[in-house]
Design brief:
globular; four-stranded antiparallel sheet; Rieske Iron-sulfur Protein; binds FE2/S2 (inorganic) cluster; single chain; 2 helices; about 220 residues; 2Fe-2S; about 20% helix; alpha+beta; transmembrane
């Protein structure tokens, strides 16, 4: 025979189960939205808007094994959203156009953990100014983390004269890629970290990292 205490305990247990299911479903929805947006973001020009709100820290980083020093190391190939290596002719020199890229995984393919999303842009080589890390540019290419340093949204749009600058759609922070992605508008507290890139000499002249990101990615 059940008592009032038993009934209360059963109701509480069911409530706990319902809460946990809701929480898990919410987390899965957020993760699914993020990766769906990433799939659509790998294009030259303007990109899909991707917010990272609702994802916990491990989901945003992609797991404890990844940080700004391990995503790319010297020689890591830069690949597009489909995992294809990016060649030196992917973006016309001096165009200022950009594309979303990722580090290549061991064994091939794009490492699409959230903090790995990277903006590759190509201007004229002589257009760059300090504080750009000039020895991290090559034949007009430079690369920056796409994770906003304000609150972690994905920097996905262009703005300014000739769409020169990167724009974060969440709170309109603006970064100038010709000056080390320094902040030129909005609330972001620091530049987008630069990824040093070079051109592999042999073979198809692929874009490669020449080292890791220069600084922590996203919100410090
Ligand atoms: S998250 Fe980019 S401006 Fe706020």
């Amino acid at each position: 025979m059940s008592t009032n205490d038993d009934t209360d305990t059963d109701a509480q247990a069911q409530s706990d189960v319902d809460y946990e299911e809701d929480r898990l479903q919410s987390t899965r929805r957020n993760a699914a939205k993020f990766f769906a947006a990433l799939g659509g973001a790998a294009a030259v020009g303007s990109f899909a808007v991707t917010g990272l709100y609702g994802l916990d820290e491990s989901a945003r980083s992609g797991g404890p094994d990844y940080n700004y020093q391990t995503l790319y190391t010297q020689g890591t190939r830069v690949v597009d959203g489909e995992g294809n290596p990016v060649t030196v002719d992917a973006i016309p020199q001096g165009s200022g156009e950009s594309m979303t890229v990722f580090p290549e995984k061991e064994g091939g393919g794009a490492l699409k953990v959230p903090i790995a999303t990277t903006l590759l842009v190509r201007f004229s080589q002589d257009a760059y100014e300090e504080p750009t890390m000039l020895d991290g540019t090559a034949q007009g290419y430079s690369a920056y983390s796409a994770t906003c340093t304000h609150a972690g949204c994905t920097v996905s749009q262009r703005t300014g004269p000739n769409d020169q600058n990167f724009l974060c759609p969440c709170h309109q922070s603006v970064f100038n890629p010709l000056q080390g992605a320094k902040v030129v508008g909005g609330p972001a507290p620091r530049p987008l970290p630069q990824l040093p890139v070079g051109i592999a000499e042999e073979g198809d002249q692929l874009i490669i990292a020449t080292g890791p990101f220069e600084a922590h990615i996203g919100v410090e």
